[in-house]
């Protein structure tokens, strides 16, 4: 097996350094051929992944959701038959994607998955010209994950996101949206548009967001929060307390293709990173990348 280890020392609180020697030793013990890619020393992870990925059987990503996002975008430019599998070692702040896969902080367990066949083909989602793996959003509080001082984030962990949200607390969002799918056409005002494939975002459990969240069902869920006033942030508190439950005034859409037009230049948050502005089209690309998953989560997610 030939492996490329991609790591980001700035993810989380820099704990990766303590595990690097253990990871190398695991590769050597199992006679894996490996190379190391340090994201600090490179200019463009996305382009480099596109060039390097076909040369490996597995990409091991030691980082957070932002690093995974970049790797996915690089891999999607590679022929589908030449894409390596992905193993995530969660070293980020919230580690939403790894958490949904059932991959926690036990590095020994996660690495041992390389010796198994506990991997499955997962969907990837295209938003205009870029790709995402689990979530996108526009509107209230959606800038807190990318518009944040990284030094504060390393010190405060996921609480740093909550602390940063205070800046958006009383700001009013009035998004005039035009939403189209193959089955409906909606024009409405909203303060938040939330797109998710899975049961976790921003470190919060949203297991009730979708009736049956799967990573390979060819669908994605969209929630439009329509009631807008200065205290609309309270609605989001209830949303997270009730794990993403659908409330009466909100619109929920389960689809494989959706176009959303906005009347302003709202910035889209894509897998926690700043994405495009304004109008978007989201398409589900079915079963694109093989991902290692905890065996207990396979039936739930696939």
CATH class of the largest domain: Mainly Beta
Please report the total strand number as a whole number. 18
| Average pLDDT figure | 88
Query: Biggest sheet, open or closed, and with what strands and sense?
Result: 6 strands, antiparallel
Strand order of the largest sheet: 6-5-18-15-8-9
* Shape summary: elongated
State the end-to-end distance.
25 Å
**Relative helix content:** 10-25%
CATH 2nd-level architecture of the largest domain: Sandwich
Number of helices, where a helix is a run of at least 4 consecutive DSSP H or I residues: 9
- In terms of DSSP E residues, the strand content is 25-35%
CATH topology of the largest domain: Tumour Suppressor Smad4
Radius of gyration: 19 Å
How many domains, in number, for the residues? 2
Assign the structural class, choosing from mainly alpha, mainly beta, alpha/beta, alpha+beta, or little secondary structure: alpha+beta
Low-confidence stretches: none
Order of helices and strands: EHEHEHEHHEEEHHEEEEEEHEEEEEH
Please give a structural write-up:
Helix 2 packs across helix 3 (65-75). By secondary structure, the protein is an alpha+beta fold. The protein contains nine helices and 18 strands. The model has no long low-confidence stretch (mean pLDDT 88). The radius of gyration is 19 Å and the shape is elongated.
